[in-house]
Design a protein that fits this description.
Elements lengths: L1 E5 L6 H10 L5 E4 L1 H6 L1 H9 L3 E4 L12 H19 L15 H6 L4 E2 L3 E2 L2 H4 L2 H11 L5 E5 L3 H16 L7 H4 L9 E2 L10
Parallel strand pairs: 1-2, 1-6, 2-3, 4-7, 5-6
Helix pairs in contact: 1-8, 7-8
The structure holds nickel (II) ion.
């Protein structure tokens, strides 16, 4: 399964990275370009620690309200901002609020990664609920959506990781979960093969 964190980096991101370090757990971060510019050191730290970096647009706008040109720009600016810091362009994209459609997908030069479990952490701000929504719904291949910009989410993470591991789950990056089989302009929300032994 994969832990994914959106909308950062923010003020809580460094403490999340500390927690992930402690348990040697990889995660995937869907970054907002504007925030990347504000927290370059945090972005570099994510990359150095082996986390996967994804593109979450420049300013978190709803893509269904933008022109084709605006969509392409907001994605390209963000990839360039990340590349300037880490030396690598992000390999995955997540549309803000999950809002996309086939016409938008065609404009995105990256695979679109959605989720199968939304912890709604930004709505309830309750570490206990974040953890129980994740644990009640997780299955092999799951992609869990959380937000590193909330301190209450960071609080949920150590316990969540230890419970997942106790149940036999191994947290991996999205690329590892989807086994390098991702295609540009195609949307994914789950890894159906992840529970199958090969
Ligand atoms: Ni978001």
């Amino acid at each position: 399964m994969a832990l994914t964190f959106d909308d950062g980096p923010g003020r809580s991101t460094n403490s999340l990275l500390d927690e992930l370090d402690k348990s040697d757990t990889p995660a995937t971060f869907f970054l907002i370009g504007r925030q990347v510019q504000k927290y370059p050191k945090t972005v570099q730290r994510m990359a150095n620690a082996g986390h996967q970096l994804g593109n979450h647009t420049w300013d978190h706008s709803d893509l269904t309200t933008l022109s084709d040109k605006q969509i392409k720009q907001k994605v390209a600016w963000t990839s360039t901002a990340i590349e300037k810091i880490t030396g690598d362009k992000p390999s995955v994209f997540r549309p803000p609020m999950g809002r996309h459609n086939p016409a938008i997908d065609k404009l995105i030069p990256l695979p679109l990664v959605l989720w199968d479990i939304n912890t709604r952490d930004g709505r309830h701000h309750d570490p206990q609920q974040t953890m129980s929504i994740a644990m009640d719904n997780v299955q092999p291949g799951s992609i869990i959506l959380m937000h590193d910009v909330h301190a209450t989410t960071v609080k949920a993470v150590p316990e969540l990781i230890s419970r997942l591991k106790a149940q036999g789950y191994t947290p991996v990056t999205v690329d590892q979960l989807l086994d390098g089989k991702l295609q540009n302009s195609v949307a994914y929300s789950f890894a159906p093969h992840a529970g199958v032994q090969r």
